[in-house]
Amino acid sequence: MTRATLDKEPHDVARMFDGVAKRYDLTNTVLSFAQDRRWRRATRDALALRPGERVLDVAAGTGVSTAELARSGAQAVASDFSLGMLRAGVRRAGRRQLPFVAADALRLPFADEAFDAVTISFGLRNIADVSGALTEFARVTKPGGRLVVAEFSTPVIPGFRQLYLNYLMRALPWVARKVSSNPEAYVYLAESIRSWPDQQQLAWTIAAAGWQEVHYRNLTGGVVALHWARRPN
After folding, report:
1. What distances in angstroms separate CA 193 from CA 24, 44, 115, 162, 208, one per listed residue?
2. φ, ψ dihedrals at 35, nearest 5°
3. N or C of the chain: less Cβ packing under 10 Å?
4. What pTM did the predictor assign?
5. pLDDT (tens digit, 9 = 90+) per residue, 165-221?
6. Which residues contact 140 (CB under 8 A, 6 or more apart)?
């Protein structure tokens, strides 16, 4: 089994995701009580994509989030640095028409201002240099283009917050052992969620990377937060 450490050494993280690729989509749906589908729709809505626009889905994994974005009529490109995830995505029915690109989020293989929008769902916390990644996202986004980050965050309902933390550290690894192809990896994922900055801290980090008009809203009581921003003209 492969489990990354919280210092996020890139090769360890990539191997970890290679190990969970086979049943990744199923495991996420089970662990989130099918809320992952709602979160993907909310991400697509926040991007406000129009037919003909180009959107880059960073850390797209098997492309389930990219397929949701493509429903808007925009040209959606899936990128990820886990080859195992990309291979699993290419084999999924309904995703074979999507462009899958092997890419490091800190050194994206795209020209400056190549996309109308960039998004990343549940992958930002797995990048070693978060600020560097946000700056790189801005490089490949057109002036005035949009950024949407969907990421696990800090529940805002006090009683629910403790219940959620208990689920993360106790129930989540147990459930993962039943359905995941690499349950040990989900121990890391639970720890990475618990150590991740809260909503306002992430908003400040996004703004410090050069993005403007940074806003966020909570989903599922703050279990997930959607942050959106605009690249300066």
Report:
1. 17, 22, 29, 14, 22
2. -70, -20
3. C
4. 0.89
5. 788 777 777 776 776 666 677 777 788 888 899 999 999 999 999 999 999 999 999
6. 56, 108, 110, 111, 112, 113, 114, 115, 118
